[in-house]
Amino acid sequence: MSYQLVNPATAEAMETIEHTSLDQTDDAIAQAKSAQRHWAGLAPAERAEILRSFADAVAKDVENLAALEVRNSGHPISQARWEANHVRNVLEYYAGAPERLMGKQIPVAGGIDITFHEPLGVVGIITPWNFPMTIASWGFAPALAAGNAVIVKPAEWTPLTTIRLGELAREAGVPEGVFQVLPGRGSVIGNRFVTHEDVRKVVFTGSTEVGKTIMRGAADQIKRVTLELGGKSANIVFADADVDKAAATAPSSVFENAGQDCCARSRILVEASVYDRFMQGLEKSVAAFAVGDPTKDETEMGPLVTSVHRDSVASFVDDDKVAFRGSAPTGPGNWFAPTVLAPTSLDDRCMREEIFGPVVAVVPFKDEAEALEIANSTEYGLSGSIWTRDVGRVIRVARGVESGNLSVNSHSSVRYSTPFGGFKQSGLGRELGPDAPLHFTEEKNVFIPND
Ligand code: NAP
Ligand code: MG
Question: Torsion angle, CA of 405/408/413/418, rounded to 10 degrees?
Answer without folding.
Answer: -60
